[in-house]
Amino acid sequence: MSRQIFAIIPASGVGSRMKSNIPKQYLKLLGKTILEHTLSIFLAHPYIEKVVVAVSKEDQYYPEIALLQDSKVKVVFGGETRADSVFNALQNVPENAWVLVHDAARPCLKRSDLDKLLQIEDEQGGILATPAIDTMKRTQDAKMISHTEDRSTLWHALTPQFFPAQRLKKALSEAFAANAVVTDEASAMEFLGFHPQLVAGRADNIKITRPEDLALAEFYLTRND
């Protein structure tokens, strides 16, 4: 592969919904932290040149993670939001490179999904996603149903999300200037009028958000399919 590929892992959140006294990326699964499981996926891939991990300035735990001392890893400080953390990390990525942005709390990503995403060459980029399978309801006041959405055009956005670094940096910068809502990297690209590609990914690429997700992630990590 001729492109330079960097990975960014924003890991400066506290994960308040986990109800834990430490940030969720440092909780243990099968003897390793969630962050170590996630980081290992990218360090093992031959096409990924470097991994930039964005941590909080108040983070007391990252110095204890030996894997963050790997020569392919650069640790930077994140910002107040995920988008701020990604933007800060992008300052350490060459402008002509492509960048994969992946949630620190998604440790179950399979190599096969990562390889599919890396096949994208269109400079609008793309993301891993899964089609919505549940009936989707729109609310009118957060308690009452307004109507049922057509799920045939709805997808759940996953990570990694894959874009040219310079284009993503510009998209985030302009979204910030306009006070636009940026919930993921694709939404910043959409703000500039781009239409990233949807790459169908596996449903076991879960984001650990609540305590009950830990057992499910542990189950997925022990499977080899």
From TrEMBL:
Its EC number is 2.7.7.60. One of its GO terms (biological process) is isopentenyl diphosphate biosynthetic process, methylerythritol 4-phosphate pathway. One of its GO terms (molecular function) is 2-C-methyl-D-erythritol 4-phosphate cytidylyltransferase activity. SUPFAM superfamilies: Nucleotide-diphospho-sugar transferases (SSF53448). Keywords: Isoprene biosynthesis, Nucleotidyltransferase, Transferase. Gene3D superfamilies: Spore Coat Polysaccharide Biosynthesis Protein SpsA, Chain A. PROSITE patterns: ISPD. The keyword Transferase applies. The record marks R151, K207 as: Positions MEP for the nucleophilic attack. This is 2-C-methyl-D-erythritol 4-phosphate cytidylyltransferase. It comes from Haemophilus paraphrohaemolyticus. The lineage of its organism: Bacteria, Pseudomonadati, Pseudomonadota, Gammaproteobacteria, Pasteurellales. The gene is ispD.
